[in-house]
Every structure is written in structure tokens, then in C-alpha cells.
């Protein structure tokens, strides 16, 4: 083979090998609560992350996933090597949290799931993640069953999945906090499970992302939960299946929904200000007097300011035109 052809063959092999690596990765860039945007953790090498984030950090610098081999380990809880966020974002019981992903590949079809775990009075900044008890507050899986089996050309029919809705909503999701949840500090665990390789015993791809929130309200419910390392089993029918064969029914994995679970209507609100995370230490101090510029007066409220935001360092491969938060 000539050197010219060898070079082009090598380039083609490298390019084709790189496609799955590139297309499989994403993370939550920010959450938006009542118009205030709270930055997510940027996992890419060289990213600048503020010391005070509501998001949990991870070591998933490839923006990758967790599969069945880690279901009974700590990485499934809030992603690989996850460490506590050092602040909380306030949200009212019954309020909504808009979760913005850094794009999502269309062929990575699967469910979207949302959980809460009570951190106790000390907050989520130092809680042991393996001790958290998660209860499911939202889930969506197969939205519309496949219309047919594979046709004569071998073309699969996938139906419509929650991930398709997320993509159509500018790669974003909306989580509604149940109205009767007791006020306090919680970890929000939001997750997409990609099923395109789920025919294999280790082929499901879980993308868990965690944020610390402070729920405000007058509720009194803290539902029983499940440890993160017990949410899923590798043998669950919802994580090992072939979605190319005309799926008609899909058993969403994980615990059952709590009785007060609410399915939020998808929308894409545009944040109007940066939100400043609040620490538990700050919550015990006296609320400062109001100043010009819009400091919210509720305990633990986010600060609306005009300070320059931290660079997003967005992975432009998956940047979606519009509000790319």
C-alpha cells in the first residue's frame, strides 16, 4: 500500500474510532431557578470552576458515563469521583428547576429520572453520599411506542423517548419540587440513561448529575428513600434491552415514584441573573439589609448581580443555538 493511501486509511480509522467517544458525552451546564442561573461543574480539563458551586464536582473529564459495572458502587450516586458541592440553591416547594444539558446525541435514547435526598440539618456540603436516601420525584421513559418492528430494509423503529423531548426542549429538562416536601437541605439527582448499547450486559450509560438545593416552604413530608448504590441492578429489564426492535412497553428502572410526584411541562425559561449559592454557615447569620442591586431577602436566597460570569468553557461540539447555558 502506498504511503498516501496508508495515511488516509489511518486518518479514516482514527476518525471513525473517535465518533462514539465524542458523541457519548454531556453534562449539566447550569440549573435555572426563578430566573437565576446556578453554574454546573465543568468537568473538561482546564475548565475554571468557582470554589462555591451548588453542583457536585466529578472526575469524569471525558464527560462520560457510569454503566452496570458500577451500579453497586459510589460512582452511580452523583457520577465518577463525585465530591460535595459547597453551596445550596434555594427553591420553593412546588417550584421548578430548569436543568440545562450541554447538548445530547439523538441516538442516545432513553429515560430521564429525577431524585431528591434529604441531607439533614447540617446541609449537603459535608454529607456522606453513600448515606443519602434517594426518593424519585419524576421520571419519563418511552413516551410513544415504536410504530412497527424493523421493516424490510432493516431500518429500526425507536418510538419517542424522554431524551427526544429533552433534545426538542433545547437540550433541557424541567424538574418540579413536590409541594409537600419538608423544608431543608436536599441533593437533587437528575439523570439520563442512554440505551443505544443496552443489548450488552454493561451497555447502559448512566449520566447522573447532582446539585445541592434548599427547599423552602411549609410541607412536612420526607419520603422513604433508597441508597444510591441500590437504585439499580444490572439485571433490571429497563437497563438491558434492545431498543431497535420496536419497543412497545418500557419498565423505567429504579424505585417507584413518590405519591406526590409531579410531571412538569417542559419549557425553556431564559435566566435573567446569576445566582449566588448560599452556604449553611451563612444561613445561620442575620439576613443583611436590602441594598440596591436586588439582593433577595429570603434566607438562603440567591443574589442577583451584574458581575461578570465565569467563562462557560462549553463543549462547542454540542452547543445548541439559542440559549446555550
From TrEMBL:
Against InterPro entries, the record matches this protein to: AA9, AA9_LPMO
Which CDD domains does the UniProt record give? LPMO_AA9 (cd21175)
Q: Which cofactor does it need?
A: Cu(2+)
- Where does this protein reside within or beyond the cell? Secreted
According to the entry, every stretch annotated as the Auxiliary Activity family 9 catalytic domain falls at 25-246
GO cellular component terms, semicolon-separated: extracellular region
Q: Which keywords describe this protein according to UniProt?
A: Carbohydrate metabolism, Cellulose degradation, Copper, Disulfide bond, Metal-binding, Monooxygenase, Oxidoreductase, Polysaccharide degradation, Secreted, Signal
Single GO molecular-function term? metal ion binding
**Keyword Aminoacyl-tRNA synthetase attached:** no
Please name one Pfam family that this protein belongs to.
AA9
| Metal-binding in keyword set | yes
Instruction: Identify the EC number(s).
Output: 1.14.99.56
From its record, what is one biological process in GO terms?
cellulose catabolic process
Q: Which domain of life is it from?
A: Eukaryota
Q: Which reaction does it catalyse?
A: [(1->4)-beta-D-glucosyl]n+m + reduced acceptor + O2 = 4-dehydro-beta-D-glucosyl-[(1->4)-beta-D-glucosyl]n-1 + [(1->4)-beta-D-glucosyl]m + acceptor + H2O
What span is annotated as the signal peptide, if there is one?
Answer: 1-24
Per the record, the similarity remark reads: Belongs to the polysaccharide monooxygenase AA9 family.
- The protein's name: lytic cellulose monooxygenase (C4-dehydrogenating)
Organism for this UniProt entry: Apiospora kogelbergensis
Amino acid at each position: 500500500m502506498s504511503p498516501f493511501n496508508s495515511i488516509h486509511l489511518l486518518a479514516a480509522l482514527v476518525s471513525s474510532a473517535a465518533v462514539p467517544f465524542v458523541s457519548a458525552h454531556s453534562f449539566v451546564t447550569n440549573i435555572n431557578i426563578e430566573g437565576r442561573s446556578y453554574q454546573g461543574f465543568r468537568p473538561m480539563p482546564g475548565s475554571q470552576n468557582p470554589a462555591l458551586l451548588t453542583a457536585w464536582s466529578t472526575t469524569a473529564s471525558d464527560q462520560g458515563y457510569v454503566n452496570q459495572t458500577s451500579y453497586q458502587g459510589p460512582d452511580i450516586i452523583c457520577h465518577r469521583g463525585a465530591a460535595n458541592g459547597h453551596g445550596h440553591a434555594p427553591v420553593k416547594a412546588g417550584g421548578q428547576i430548569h436543568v440545562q444539558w450541554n447538548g445530547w446525541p439523538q441516538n442516545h435514547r432513553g429515560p430521564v429520572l429525577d431524585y431528591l435526598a434529604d441531607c439533614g440539618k447540617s446541609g449537603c456540603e459535608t454529607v456522606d453520599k453513600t448515606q443519602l436516601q434517594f426518593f424519585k420525584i419524576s421520571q419519563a421513559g418511552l413516551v410513544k411506542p415504536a410504530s412497527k418492528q424493523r421493516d424490510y430494509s432493516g431500518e429500526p423503529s425507536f418510538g419517542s423517548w424522554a431524551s427526544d423531548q429533552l433534545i426538542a426542549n433545547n437540550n433541557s429538562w424541567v424538574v418540579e419540587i413536590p409541594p409537600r416536601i419538608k423544608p431543608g437541605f436536599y441533593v437533587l439527582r437528575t439523570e439520563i440513561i442512554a440505551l443505544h448499547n443496552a443489548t450488552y450486559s454493561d451497555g447502559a450509560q448512566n449520566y447522573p448529575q447532582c446539585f445541592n438545593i434548599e427547599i423552602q416552604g411549609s410541607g412536612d413530608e420526607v419520603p422513604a428513600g433508597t441508597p444510591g448504590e441500590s437504585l439499580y441492578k444490572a439485571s433490571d429489564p429497563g437497563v438491558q434491552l434492545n431498543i431497535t426492535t420496536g419497543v412497545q412497553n418500557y419498565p423505567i428502572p429504579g424505585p417507584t415514584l413518590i405519591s406526590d410526584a409531579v410531571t412538569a411541562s417542559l419549557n425553556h425559561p431564559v435566566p435573567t441573573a446569576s445566582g449566588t449559592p448560599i452556604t449553611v454557615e451563612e444561613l445561620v447569620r442575620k439576613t443583611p439589609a436590602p441594598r440596591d442591586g436586588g439582593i433577595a431577602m429570603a434566607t438562603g436566597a440567591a443574589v442577583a448581580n451584574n458581575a461578570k460570569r465565569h467563562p462557560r468553557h462549553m463543549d462547542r461540539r454540542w452547543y445548541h443555538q439559542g440559549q446555550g447555558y
